Amino acid sequence: MNADRMPLTMRTFQARLLRLRQWLVPDELGLGWAPLYMLGYLVFLFLPAIFNFLGTRELLWFGMENGQLLATLASVVVFLPIYFLSYRVRSAAAEGACLLAIAGLGYALLPFNSFANTYVIYAVAIAATIDGALRYKLAWMIGVFAVFLLQVIALNYPLFVFAITLLVGVAAFFSNHFYVENRRKGAELKLSHDEVRRLAAVAERERIGRDLHDLLGHTLSLVALKSELAGKLLERDVAAARREIDEVMRVARDALSQVRRAVTGIRAAGLAAELASAKLLLESGGVAFRYALADVALTPELETVLALGVREAVTNIQRHARAFRAEVALEQRHGRVLLRIGDDGRGSAIVPGNGLTGMRERIEALGGDLRIDSAPGRGTRVEIELPLPEPSSPAPAAASRPIAS
Predict the structure, then answer these.
(1) Beta-carbon neighbour count of residue 364 at 10 Å?
(2) With contact defined as beta carbons under 8 Å apart, do 292 and 402 qualify?
(3) Is the CB of residue 172 less than 8 Å from the CB of residue 125?
(4) CA of 237: how far to CAs of 70, 226, 231, 246, 251, in Å?
(5) Is 20 among the domain residues?
(6) CA 39 to CA 43: how far, in whole Å?
(7) Do 61 and 157 touch, CB atoms closer than 8 A?
(8) I need a surface site. Which of 13, 96, 114, 293 has the fewest CB within 10 A?
(9) How many Å apart are CA 60 and CA 51, to the nearest integer?
């Protein structure tokens, strides 16, 4: 069902649910619902009670009476604030405090609940997210497991309790460690990409400054000189003064034409360059990106509109879609050029903003159409269709663009 057709109560419920998630786990971490899904492992704490209820208590080395069930429930009440706090703190010391609090909760509950090793696994998983070198994180993990092993021996629990905890805990630790490292490398790549774009913008501004100086410096000097000469000739030779004024007008018109051509070049955006930038941006965020371009002769105006459309769509994919794959395809049919941009993200109701409104205005100014199809769970598809110039119209030949990905 399309988001804009959902009942108001359903949309209100979804909005409140998203606000609650943002309050518990900040969106800037990029974790989505995963931290809440991870709470499902708390069910292991209640396996002894479940086995008691099913009459299979003999399968366990430790049962659970009512008092022990209450202790487990109380531990969950204490655990939840610490767990969510661990996602909000920023310093290594604060994260270490959360880790120790959760591990301590497991140690305290273990004499009453043989599945309290669940908290130990949570603590080890948090250790992988602490800022610092891998050896520092491993030291935290080894310390937590060492204390747990001593307690298992003291309580005379079977050693396979420790073995299972060690196996699951190490898997959780390295899973979180590699996730954090991939996010860090992605952030560094994005910063590098932003720096490249910033330096390119600085170089372009310097080039524009040089071009305008070269273009207008001589012309304005000539205009000033001829205007001064016309003023001196005005009293002695009106015809000569008029000729000088006409020359000033010709030079001014020529300069205006050159400035317009320069500004058109400055505003033009290359489609191939925009796609290369999009590939770097999306793949640094873990989104696989492919594109295929047919060999189409585009005027600078058409190419600029298509390039800016790609930029707007890709920016929205990177910020909002939570997609795994995205693709762009350019083709020509029936005297028109068609650009398709799609992703497999979450999709949503389209709320036109400044970027989308500007894209539509640019497309419609050239006689084109913009179509957007987005539905929850089915991703988003953007189609830009523009008319190509008539064959008789002079148009610069575009460089051949082979299919690429």
Answers:
(1) 12
(2) no
(3) yes
(4) 110, 14, 10, 14, 21
(5) yes
(6) 8
(7) yes
(8) 13
(9) 8
Q: What angle do CA 182, 101, 183 make, to 5 degrees?
A: 10
Residue 386 confidence (pLDDT): 92
pLDDT in tens, 111-141: 888 888 899 999 999 888 888 888 888 999 9
Encode pLDDT of 156-174 as tens digits. Answer: 988 888 999 999 999 989 9
Owning domain of residue 137: 3-190
CATH code at position 356: 3.30.565.10
Q: Specify which residues 331 forms β-bridges with.
A: 338
Alpha carbon distance 87, 81 (integer Å): 10
Contact 283, 324 (CB under 8 A): no
State pTM to two decimals. Answer: 0.50
Give yes or no: residues 116 and 96 share one domain: yes
Of 148, 165, 190, the domain-final residue: 190
Q: Does the structure show a pLDDT above 70 at 145?
A: yes
- Counting Cβ atoms within 10 Å, is residue 149 exposed (0-12), middle (13-18) or buried (19+)? middle
Contacts of 148 (CB under 8 A, 6+ apart): 103, 106, 107, 117, 120, 162, 165
In tens, the pLDDT along 381-397 reads 999 999 988 765 444 44
- Decide the pairing of beta strands 369-374 and 325-333: unpaired
- pLDDT grade, residue 253 (50/70/90)? confident
Same-domain check for residues 39 and 123? yes
